[in-house]
Amino acid sequence: xxxxxxxxxxxxxxxxxxxxxxxxxxxxxxxxxxxxxxxxxxxxxxxxxxxxxxxxxxxxxxxxxxxxxxxxxxxxxxxxxxxxxxxxxxxxxxxxxxxxxxxxxxxx
Length: 108
What we know:
Layout: H1 3-22, H2 24-30, H3 34-47, E1 53-54, H4 55-72, H5 81-90, E2 96-97, E3 106-107
Antiparallel strand pairs: 1-3, 2-3
Helix pairs in contact: 1-2
């Protein structure tokens, strides 16, 4: 391997590493709860054909999802729904915003 191809390979590795460190999607996929988070978000937004949901509705759906999971996996997703929603917004997996027509936060 020549020095220039080694340099390019090193730059490519660094670029890929930076992507995995900075990308919200890559962080999600590395999460221990990724299968459950992706399943919940897919069910709620994609299958539910919703672009955005109000906080109360989303919290209620997450609570129901947790109850469903706890029937077979009681040790998974044991925190309060609000905790997860806040965490997911902080991780950029969800976006929280206020609409001018609503008093409650919306999520998408």
